[in-house]
């Protein structure tokens, strides 16, 4: 099916919003944070999820605040989404009058995403903090795409602070559990509007919601937990205060949500396929669940130019779901290896065209800054240097072949010192969220074109900075990625996620 029919290219028609029912809520989680499959080899078996995660370790948890109703078969309360058996676990009740006092639009539910650092720090140590924040961005984008399939809108509620979210979840400000789960930190609240619009919510009413937690014990992750002081320090610095109009000073674009047309109502969710009307929406949702991370690239495949452009368009901020309320901070540098009608070399994609002059002044003065002749409108793509960039991509990505064997690789270069100084240290984690969302866009759009992507968390940022001529903290390399034709391991057996 052509890429331009899958929501990644030119899809401007508005989706007919689906009602907020238990069935549709189940579908939302099924296409965002659920298990997507299982793999087996030589007696070993492991699960995969719709949302990507470093090392398949998944530190991100999702909590749901819902008020119930006739079509939503839930009593008012705080629920935890459990991917293992695709279920909601009631953790705390909410009095009906307390929920009604929020004055939320009909068909609105609230989500809170949290991070359990120990899920990744046992393997990655101090760098687990940034991996966790990238995974938070992956989860944000996965949830946004799943909401889009239902005609729903997902919106960040950034006026609330970390303590507000902890109080809502646990009735305690800044609760950091040191028990069997390790430290869990709330990251962000999202409002899910089933009417497809974006509404403003009173932060004072939300932060004052009263819950009645049940006496429950969390699962034990491991017999003991090794503390990482660096993660504790970064997490403490990343605590967000309650701020009204946090991004009012930025020149952020209004949130835009692209939607595909979907008609009719979905039937019960089954592993084989999501039963929705229309080939377009069925295929689109299928892509969400079939996304996989490449383990190796073939080193030979060449990508058509139109596919390359479509993949890049999917990363643009106006296509982000959910839309981010701050000015785009991340501008990817591309190592182009094998793309039809493109010279090999180094390129940059400006997701914020206002950054061009500043980047040009900060980078190597010998860079070309030439726009390739067939670049379509809406893509600010520039060639910086010509030549074989495979060794540079490989060496800068911890000498991993996957960075040089794909059709192209990416180094996500973010504005760094200025936004952190403008907003505060809590904005540091948001830079990684933005990178993670770009990564998920690359995953899905490459999947739609018949290619495959893979995030690369291990890289030498200093090497990339020297390569680009960046010598201060104005810009920072935060995430690498590669896209190409994936090699598959014939020993692996694919199994259904559930059943």
TrEMBL record:
Protein known as: Nitroreductase domain-containing protein
Membrane-crossing residue ranges in chain numbering: none
GO molecular function: oxidoreductase activity
């Amino acid at each position: 099916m052509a890429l331009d029919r899958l929501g990644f290219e030119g899809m401007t028609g508005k989706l007919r919003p689906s009602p907020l029912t238990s069935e549709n809520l189940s579908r939302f989680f099924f296409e965002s944070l659920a298990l997507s499959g299982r793999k087996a080899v030589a007696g070993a078996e492991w699960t995969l999820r719709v949302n990507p995660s470093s090392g398949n370790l998944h530190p991100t948890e999702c909590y749901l605040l819902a008020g119930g109703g006739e079509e939503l078969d839930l009593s008012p309360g705080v629920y935890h989404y459990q991917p293992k058996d695709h279920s909601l676990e009631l953790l705390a009740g909410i009095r009906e009058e307390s929920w009604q006092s929020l004055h939320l639009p009909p068909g609105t539910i609230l989500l809170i995403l949290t991070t359990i650092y120990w899920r990744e720090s046992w393997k990655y140590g101090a760098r687990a903090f940034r991996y966790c924040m990238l995974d938070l961005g992956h989860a944000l984008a996965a949830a946004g795409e799943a909401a889009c399939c239902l005609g729903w809108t997902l919106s960040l509620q950034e006026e609330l602070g970390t303590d507000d979210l902890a109080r809502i979840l646990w009735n305690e400000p800044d609760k950091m559990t040191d028990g069997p789960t390790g430290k869990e930190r709330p990251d962000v609240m999202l409002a899910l509007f089933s009417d497809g619009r974006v509404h403003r919510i009173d932060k004072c009413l939300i932060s004052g919601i009263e819950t009645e937690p049940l006496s429950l014990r969390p699962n034990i992750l491991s017999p003991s937990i090794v503390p990482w002081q660096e993660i504790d320090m970064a997490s403490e610095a990343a605590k967000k205060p309650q701020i009204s109009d946090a991004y009012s000073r930025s020149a952020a674009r209004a949130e835009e949500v692209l939607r595909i047309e979907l008609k009719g109502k979905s039937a019960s969710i089954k592993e084989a396929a999501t039963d929705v009307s229309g080939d377009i929406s069925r295929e689109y949702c299928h892509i969400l669940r079939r996304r996989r991370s490449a383990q190796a690239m073939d080193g030979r495949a060449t990508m058509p130019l139109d596919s390359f452009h479509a993949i890049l368009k999917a990363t643009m901020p106006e296509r982000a779901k959910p839309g981010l309320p701050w000015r785009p901070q991340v501008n990817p540098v591309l190592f182009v290896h094998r793309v039809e009608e493109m010279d090999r070399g180094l390129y940059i994609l400006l997701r914020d065209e206002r950054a061009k002059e500043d980047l040009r002044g900060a980078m190597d003065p010998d860079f070309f800054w030439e726009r390739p002749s067939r670049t379509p409108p809406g893509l600010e793509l520039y060639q910086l240097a010509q030549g074989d960039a495979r060794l540079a991509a490989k060496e800068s990505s911890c000498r991993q072949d996957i960075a040089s064997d794909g059709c192209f690789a990416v180094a996500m270069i973010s504005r760094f010192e200025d936004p952190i100084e403008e907003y505060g240290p809590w904005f540091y984690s948001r830079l990684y969220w933005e990178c993670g969302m770009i990564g998920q866009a690359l995953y899905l759009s490459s999947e739609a074109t018949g290619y495959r992507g893979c995030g690369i968390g291990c890289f030498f940022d200093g090497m990339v900075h020297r390569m680009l001529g960046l010598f201060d903290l104005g810009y920072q390399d935060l995430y690498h990625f590669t896209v190409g034709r994936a090699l598959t391991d014939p020993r692996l057996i694919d199994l259904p996620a559930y059943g």
